């Protein structure tokens, strides 16, 4: 049974985790608690080799000539079952060969009264290869205060997690496998935007999160004209699916990107067992 306090927590976690929401419908740290790593995967307990994951297509790099925004801020409104649920702001900034993404998410209105959330996510990836470099989250959900950092070490082929609970005063470290190149749950939103999105076509890529590697298939379904608070957009609707059989049981996710070279994420919709959540673009600022 879904508790009231679970709803806003999952709402704000869902946007940066949209590609994994159907496979891991809780915060990555909670997933680790529910499915603790075997002792040989815990960096603090052992140096045994990490288990190998099944081979998957390598991460297709962004096409030559594609340029990620050098400075851009996107703001979204979130609705859950027709109720205003919160606001999300995504800021992109180039720093030499790297791209920085910062996302802030906060609950609003009656949802905030039930359970207040104010989270901040940060991700860094290579602008040329698309390979993620780091992912962090500052969690403020109800009385919960947790800082989580994941570093992607491609030399050792490891995801290295460090987490600190500011309320309980405890900390933990863990590690998981990492392929030669992967995107993360946050960078994936904009990595997808760098790829050709032609209706009827699809491609596969590797997604690293929760100290696991997920093979994602991304299909461009159709062109649609949609209206959001930011205006009327011609878009391309795409749908990610991960590991056959899992998303079918947990829910479906769609993204609408602007049908132009920028591929701005205009709308995101997740249809899960606890309801439909929709993010709609409200403003675009080049700063």
Plain-language structure description:
With 287 residues, the protein is mainly β. It has one domain (8-41, 53-285). Helix content is 11%, strand content 50%. It has five helices and 15 strands. It has helices at 6-14, 28-34, 109-114, 188-193, 247-250, and strands spanning 71-80, 83-95, 98-107, 118-126, 132-141, 144-153, 158-165, 171-177, 183-184, 202-209, 212-228, 231-242, 251-258, 265-272, 275-285. Strands 8-7-6-5-4-3-2-1-15-14-13-12-11-10-9 form a 15-stranded mixed sheet. The longest helix has 9 residues, at 6-14. Residues 1-56 and 244-248 have low confidence and may be disordered.
Topology:
Layout: H1 6-14, H2 28-34, E1 71-80, E2 83-95, E3 98-107, H3 109-114, E4 118-126, E5 132-141, E6 144-153, E7 158-165, E8 171-177, E9 183-184, H4 188-193, E10 202-209, E11 212-228, E12 231-242, H5 247-250, E13 251-258, E14 265-272, E15 275-285
Parallel strand pairs: 9-10
Antiparallel strand pairs: 1-2, 1-15, 2-3, 3-4, 4-5, 5-6, 6-7, 7-8, 10-11, 11-12, 12-13, 13-14, 14-15
Order of helices and strands: HHEEEHEEEEEEHEEEHEEE
Helical fraction equals: 10-25%
Specify the structural class: mainly beta
Categorize the overall geometry.
globular
Q: What is the number of strand segments?
A: 15
């Amino acid at each position: 049974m879904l508790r009231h306090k679970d709803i806003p927590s999952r709402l704000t976690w869902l946007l940066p985790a949209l590609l994994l929401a159907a496979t891991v419908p809780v915060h990555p740290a909670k997933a680790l608690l529910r499915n603790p790593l075997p002792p040989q995967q815990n960096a603090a307990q052992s140096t045994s080799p990490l288990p190998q994951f099944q081979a998957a297509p390598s991460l297709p790099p962004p096409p030559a000539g594609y340029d990620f925004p050098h400075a851009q801020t996107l703001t979204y409104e979130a609705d859950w079952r027709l109720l205003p649920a919160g606001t999300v702001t995504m800021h992109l900034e180039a720093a030499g060969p790297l791209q920085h993404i910062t996302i802030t998410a906060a609950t609003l209105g009656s949802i905030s009264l039930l359970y207040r959330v104010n989270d901040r996510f940060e991700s860094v990836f290579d602008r040329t290869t698309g390979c993620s470099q780091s992912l962090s989250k500052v969690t403020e959900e109800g009385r919960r205060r947790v800082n989580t950092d994941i570093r992607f070490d491609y030399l050792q082929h490891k995801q290295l997690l460090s987490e600190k609970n500011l309320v309980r005063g405890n900390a933990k470290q863990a590690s998981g496998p990492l392929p030669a190149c992967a995107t993360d749950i946050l960078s994936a939103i904009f990595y997808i935007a760098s790829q050709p999105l032609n209706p009827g076509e699809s491609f596969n890529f590797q997604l690293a999160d929760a100290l696991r590697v997920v093979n994602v298939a991304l299909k461009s379904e159709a062109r649609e004209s949609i209206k959001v608070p930011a205006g009327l957009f011609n878009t391309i609707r795409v749908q990610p699916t991960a590991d056959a059989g899992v998303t079918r049981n947990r829910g479906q996710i769609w993204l609408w990107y602007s049908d132009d070279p920028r591929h701005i994420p205009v709308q995101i919709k997740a249809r899960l067992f606890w309801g439909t959540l929709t993010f709609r673009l409200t403003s675009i600022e080049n700063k």
